[in-house]
Amino acid sequence: MRRILTLILGLACLSANAQNINDVLRLGLEESQGTARYQAMGGAFGALGGDLSSLNSNPAGSAIFNYGQFAISGSNYNRSNDQGYGSSFNNTTLNSVELNQVGGVFVFNSQNPNSNWKKMALAVNYDLVDSFDNEYRINGNSTTGVDQYFLGFAKGVPFGSINYDPNSEFVDDVYLEIGELQNFGNQQAFLGYAGGLISPADPDNPDGESYLSNTEYSQVNQRYLQSTVGYNSKFTLNFSGQYQENLYLGASLNFHSVLFERFTQLDEDGYNTDSPVSFSSFDNLLQTEGNGFSFSLGAIAKLNDNIRVGGSYQSPTWYYLNDNLSQQINSNLADSEIRFINFNLINFYEDYTIQTPSKVTGSAAIVFGKDGLLSFDYSHQDFSKAELRPNNDPVFEEENTFIASELGAVNSYKLGGEYRIERLSLRGGYQIIESPYADKQIMDDLSGYSAGLGYDFGGSKLDLSFVRTEQDMDFALLDAASNTAASTFTNTNVALTYTLKF
Known about the structure:
Layout: H1 21-28, H2 36-40, E1 69-85, E2 88-109, E3 117-131, E4 134-142, H3 147-154, H4 171-181, H5 184-194, E5 198-200, E6 211-213, E7 220-243, E8 247-269, E9 280-302, E10 307-314, E11 317-331, E12 347-348, E13 352-356, E14 359-367, E15 372-382, E16 387-389, H6 394-406, E17 409-421, E18 424-433, E19 446-456, E20 460-476, E21 484-501
Antiparallel strand pairs: 1-2, 1-21, 2-3, 3-7, 4-7, 5-6, 7-8, 8-9, 9-10, 9-11, 10-14, 11-12, 11-13, 13-16, 14-15, 15-17, 17-18, 18-19, 19-20, 20-21
Helix pairs in contact: 3-5, 4-5
């Protein structure tokens, strides 16, 4: 009688292909999150400071505070995904509510009137760098079926290395063993073979490296679902000080926490009537968790009563991560025991590191006394220097070469303004974050505008913001396949911040 595996089985994949350029961009590209005031002004706070989320732009910003503060922020994230696939148009929307910022700053004024250091500040702050909660549903037709995903991995794989005897071997044992002793690519080739989607061109030749599709079609109908959950959060420990009257210096230590889960489901039919395969399904569940570290240095100078300039350096962020992957596949030609390859079988991969590139920011601001201000930030970040590690892993080495050839510098421009009417503040902002790709068909620039208002009650403040960003890109249904949907992603955030002064 066939035994049922209910325990979780693990393996260390010698060269996993689960980590790639998409993971680098997911962690490296950051939108403006933070307090409502920070978001309303487009994140242009590098020369301003005086806001807990300004530490994201310049760690010297906490030295601008004249007294201690505590702030807490919540946001509603609305995501609208428009996607064209084949001859079909699809829209998916998702709402989520998050506590996206909480922190405080303590200000210590110098007791020595002759000291050059006028005050010191200590700040601690939590920020939600990115919420991964999202959903994509795509229905449409394509001239490229899922068989091409498996044929791509099977090319050059000796049939003998993935062949098995279904009368004496369990299909799930073979699946795990190939992943452990060979590699991710061979495991995917086996999955396509056991799932009935591909077959060896010469089944009697164990050294044969050619495979054929068991599907016949001019186009196929595909139904795709991707659901992601998780977050990239950052805890910041910040120190800063005011030197003499016009110079502010600061440094921050940043500790990241990452949790990401992606479930994908691809169902396919619409093959020719004489096709051996009449339907197929392919599901994946990827889970990533880990932590990261970075540091930042910055300075703000008051050139006169009205003009401030700032500069900051954000070190690379080193993320230490681990992945696990579960899969399931089916078709009318699949192994009769294919159901035992399911989400109870988990592939555990070796721990790895993602190093996102450093960032430099230059800022300038004009302050019109108590009436308002204008602020501008420019940042530069070279994504061709991003890396997957360890470097001696041949798959990572190949992917790093690909990253260096595909990605380039990202320049971002942020503009913000504030106008005060007694206790009421009106705010607005605009931002452009350039695409890391030279080919903007893959990913276009991200642009967005923001607005907000705030009211100062004296001992406390309440701030509200609205942010809308938009970006076009080609959305890949599977990482290693050519199926893409022309997509426009629109994110709308509404944030509310309560600040208590002390």
